[in-house]
């Protein structure tokens, strides 16, 4: 079995992410984050900080611990660090870990921000963490291949009085099953088929926006004005699209299912946004 091995900062075992990617069982999330990281600048970092402040209801995380499960590019770990938190980040994908470490070395080289290579599904790895004031996992747990186990573990890592902040794909029934097929096909295909899937998905996802633009043009004679290339939270339209089309494994959950899991761990709902 071919795996990846990292010895920095306590990384402790072979994690076979690379084989899963090569076999078409997993999207190369880390490679996509590496490409996105070239776009990271002070403006994107500021946007990430602002979105974190809005989500957490405070801009002062001094003295609080912050766990970033599936840190990706490390952008939100950096935002939390700049807000004063003591940050611990980890990711299953070694390329994502490398990208996060590069971001830390660039923007917070002398901080105690810890970055590790590991899986939320690895009980021996997670069991040594303790608990955190804020457990953050945006768009990650549904890509583990074991959503409910991952969510259960994330909930257990929240300290008493702490906050769990997660983003999980909403169950849209047949539409979600169709997207699962697209994602599985993307990861088992070559470059040409992948390009066609991305192009087709973009046209499908943009159709409502184009229809609204045409309607406004017909009514007012003016086209709507919008930004290009950048999304809320400091993200990228293009790399988010690639992540969406390729993002596999892919699981979904209805909001009430997530609520039940949270209540099982003594958590109560403070904020909800559904899409």
Principal-axis shape = globular
What about the largest sheet?
5 strands, parallel
Helix and strand content put the structural class at alpha/beta
Tell me the β content. Answer: 5-15%
Number of strands: 5
**Helical stretch count?**
11
Into which percent range does the helicity of residues fall?
Answer: 40-55%
Please, what is the oligomeric state?
A: single chain
Q: Radius of gyration, rounded?
A: 19 Å
Cα end-to-end separation: 39 Å
Give the overall average pLDDT.
88
Please give a structural write-up:
- There is one protein chain.
- Helices cover 47% and strands 12% of the residues.
- It has a 5-stranded parallel β-sheet.
- It starts with 16 loop residues before the first helix and ends in an 11-residue tail after the last helix.
- By secondary structure, the protein is α/β, with parallel strands linked by helices.
- The chain contains 11 helices and 5 strands.
Short description:
Helices cover about 45% and strands about 10% of the residues. It is α/β, with parallel strands linked by helices and about 280 residues long. The longest helix has 30 residues, at about 190-220.
Secondary structure elements and their pairing?
Layout: H1 17-22, H2 29-37, H3 42-56, E1 65-69, H4 75-82, E2 86-91, H5 94-107, E3 114-117, H6 123-126, E4 132-138, H7 147-156, E5 158-167, H8 174-187, H9 191-220, H10 237-246, H11 255-264
Parallel strand pairs: 1-2, 1-4, 2-3, 4-5
